[in-house]
Amino acid sequence: MGAYGANGDTGEGAGAPGQVAMVFDLNKCMGCQTCSVACKVLWTREEGEDHQWWMSVNTQPGLGTPKGWEEMGGGWLDGQPVPGHQPGRAEFGGGWDFNYQEVFYGGTGSSTHLRPIDHGDGNTGWGMNWDEDQGGGEYPNSYYFYLPRLCNHCTHPVCVTACPSGAMYKRHEDGVVLRDESACQGARFCMEACPYKKIYFNYARNVAQHCIMCFPRLEVEVAPACARQCPGRLVFVGSADDDESPIHKLVHQWEVALPLHPEFGTGPNIFYVPPLSPSRLHEDLSIDEETPRIPPEYLESLFGPKVHAALDTMRRELARVRAGGQSELLDTLIVYHWSDLFGRYTTDPATLDRSPGRVPVRFGRSPGTPTTG
Amino acid sequence: MGSLTAPEVGEEALDPDAGAWDSIPSEGVPLVPVPIEAQLNAYVRAAWTGRDYGRSGPVELALARCGGRLLARLSWDGSAVPPGEFTDAAGLLLPREPGTASPVTMGTHAEPVSLWQWRDRLASQQGLPSAKYLVSTGPGVFRPVPAGGEVSARSSRAGARWSVVLAGPAEALATGSVGVAVWDGANAERAGIGAVCATWVEVTP
Lengths: 373, 205
Known about the structure:
heterodimer, A: 373 residues, alpha+beta, Alpha-Beta Plaits, four-stranded mixed beta sheet, 11 helices, 14 strands, 21% helix, B: 205 residues, Immunoglobulin-like, nine-stranded mixed beta sheet, five-stranded antiparallel beta sheet, 1 helix
């Protein structure tokens, strides 16, 4: 058996010129959840999707969503899949029903508080942003930052390998990882195998579901909803293989955009510009100019050892500009024109033909797409 | 293992607790774990090697015909543990070609088998059908039959013992043999991780 899968699922779409990638600049993320809501209202409003947040933003350090996901296993090690834990309903939490009837019509509205109803599945003890702004460190050196997360549409998608029914596949033309829900048997090995735990289970329909990178939008050159709706202009979309794209420059040229948990071995195609932070304070509240507030070792635990060089590059470019110089890197990250974020995906969705009967997307596998089984 | 007959019965036999089943001969079918080395999926092999599974069975199996349908009544001791993420399930395996090798791998790519699969449903899944007509080409490699295969199921439970009647098109029995499989939901058994009969059960015309 070769590396990366026994079924011939090597993620052949990866490495193709069309692999779509995204870069999130964490220095600009303010945790507003506009990306989360943009995704939610577009894709997960059907039955069984209440608790699903294909795009979500968590505060770091934190346990995140699902609760404690970083310790749940999965991914690849030495070319072999790593067994993982399948997060359950309680670990995702959220998707609550509230006691509206009791509060509004039960005659006890002045003494009854609005609260989630416990249906016995434990989902009221956690949620998609449960530990918001708790962060880490001790005053006056407490710190936190926001981490938007979605499916990484990995180069070596272990979820595809883990799917016994062949429902999951990686599109050849753009590397987006998708699922044929009509073939999904609800086995949920994909959820176990995904080390990022960004696959949800629709209990009502007995199928797993995850971010589809807004592929119907990509097909008509509209940026994914999470990226287009971001008010902070921090989400870049494009091909990492296009030498002229900001994605390529951030990932390959300047090497300031890094994958999350590269040690998981799946080759994520979502990258992050790690957060800079102010200096620590000494006990007497004088400034320790040499030590950043966010511990570099913590950032290394998230983004790998290359994070130090990335931060050094950022600091060097900042110093250059502060000294009156120019920095193409900083100009790129500032994003003077929002359309610079999206490469060719700048079509205004309001201009699309939405006439009745029109089928605007190619749904399903393209010829040559590798399958399992 | 002996052979079964499939006598003609009335519609009441769709109920697994119907008295009609009392007079129909049944066969105790022993089950074995689907071999870990037969799993086609690298992740499943990595996750389940060394773990205990496939201990369900035997299954008491009886067959009948009702109009153009084949009825299969499966009865076995399920898990006493309430369902968690996964629920109990059972299936009737039907070779699609004569001479199909052992059912222990749930078919192969070269020798696909039909799988009529029943699954217990959680309270939140009551809108889902309780049975599927699938084609299996290996452990857990199940795909829906594109068209023309309607399978239904009714189930009852007495203590930990399940009784399930699966009903589907009688022509699926054309090869004259059947097999069974059971998945213990409390042990997170699903797809190719389960218990299956090692040999086909012959059905006398």
